[in-house]
Amino acid sequence: MTKFLAAERAIRAAAPFDLLDTVRRALVEEYGALSVDLLMADYSLTLLQPVTELPHTAEPVPVHASPAGRAFASQDPHTRSVAGEGSVDLFLPVTVRGDRLGILAVRVPEERCTPQEIDELTDLAEILGHEIVVADRDTDVYLQARRASRLTLAAEMQWQLLPGRSYTRTEYAIGAQLEPAYAIHGDNFDWAATGDTLTLTVTNGMGEGIEASLLTNLAVNALRNARRAGIGIADQAALADQALYAQHRGERYVSTLLLSFDLATERVQTVDAGSPQLWRQRGRTVDQVPFEAQLPLGMFEETDYVVQEFEVRRGDRLLFVSDGVYSALSASGEAYGERRLARAIQGASLLPASAVPRAILQELAVHVNADAEDDALVVCLDWFGRETGSV
Predict the structure, then answer these.
(1) pLDDT (tens digit, 9 = 90+) per residue, 144-154?
(2) Which long-range contacts (CB under 8 A, 24 or more apart) does 328-335 make?
(3) Distance (Å, rounded) from C-alpha 202 to C-alpha 277?
(4) Residue 7: pLDDT above 90?
């Protein structure tokens, strides 16, 4: 445990841009590591990008069909013996509260690969993840490493606006993904948790490119401003509506679905202000949860919004999708539609929430069979429920 504490102290004391070199030195000194590499998940979640000096020249690793990818998908350590070298490669998830950042790849001598050593290195990979999240405030090193290609300016703004791509706690797990990852413009998601509630919003700003991104940025920040004032989701919608109308006078608006989950009662308050849809998988049944449609945010001045309610049950899976999913057209002009969407949801039943959005968007890509012209957003929420007496 002494060597673990020494490595932990070194990682926590490292300069933001020097985390990887610090981890290397600590693991070489304390655990006899032969090599240490950090692989960051790219924006499309298809590649693991090595963190190197610019310009990045190291080859990326595919998430599918690679040992590092298996560890990333399973979120469990994965080992691989190195033939003829007497050493073992360890692939350790770098994850923060369910948000999968990447993989720490460590090669150690075979005799050092004990269960205790693996457990300690796994914990150090998690500590590294927390430090990367903090370091992102002060350095671009890890954000740059995530890029398999250049982001558009609109996409840069959208990804910086997000809370993360997944989040896990005792009562629920969330996973989300946007496509086209490097050219997204109007779609967005947001969440905020307390000990008793979860607030989740899915937004879709009209238009394309930077105009859609600016519109969505205004909407998301207006909703956050209202939420952080401690008011309910109907008033959050009303205040965001006023902010958008004041700026654009009804010429531009944002479709939004707002939800507030009460963890104790399992009741959900909802405001449906536009096109994002909610689907529910309960047991073997997949169906859309209908709400009374209300006006998108910013369409008219001083719109009143009404809260509706529904109940979640333990074991429910909720899927939130934008119109870029269910309305996506094939090369022949056929919409993706409800039947294909329900089938895609069923096909992802055995996956964890963090992996579901990517799986559904891959199914969508087969249908579209071309570069998407519209944003496509999927958010998955698995509801586990609260154990009696837990907080």
Answers:
(1) 999 999 999 99
(2) 328/364, 328/367, 328/368, 328/372, 328/374, 328/376, 329/368, 330/367, 330/368, 330/369, 331/368, 331/369, 331/370
(3) 9
(4) yes
CA distances in angstroms from 257 to 250, 269, 294, 297, 356, listed in the order given = 19, 11, 10, 10, 20
Q: What is the mean pLDDT of residues 111-127?
A: 96
Separation between Cα atoms, residue 216 and residue 236, nearest integer Å:
15
Predicted TM-score (pTM) above 0.85: yes
- Cα torsion 284, 191, 16, 150: sign: positive
Question: What DSSP letter does each residue of 22-83 carry, written as one string?
Answer: HHHHHHHHHH--SEEEEEEEPTTSSEEEE--SSSP-SPPEESTTSHHHHHHHHTS-EEEEET
In 10 A of CB 142, how many CB atoms?
23
Give the CA distances from residue 205 to residues 77, 214, 280, 368, in Å, rounded to whole numbers and listed in that order: 40, 9, 24, 22
For the segment 269-312, what is each residue's pLDDT rounded down to a tens digit? 999 999 899 999 999 999 999 999 999 999 999 899 999 999 99
pLDDT surpassing 70 at residue 200: yes
Asked if the model's pLDDT at residue 389 lies above 80, the reply is no
Assign 83 a pLDDT band (cuts: 50, 70, 90). confident
Count CA atoms closer than 13 A to 385's CA, side-chain side.
10
In degrees, rounded to 5, the angle at the alpha carbon of residue 143 between the alpha carbons of residues 32 and 94 is: 40
d(CA 118, CA 19): 20
Q: Render 117-139 in DSSP notation, one character per residue.
A: HHHHHHHHHHHHHHHHHHHTTT-
Is the bond preceding residue 296 a cis peptide, omega within 30 degrees?
Answer: no
Q: What pLDDT score was predicted for residue 135? A: 97
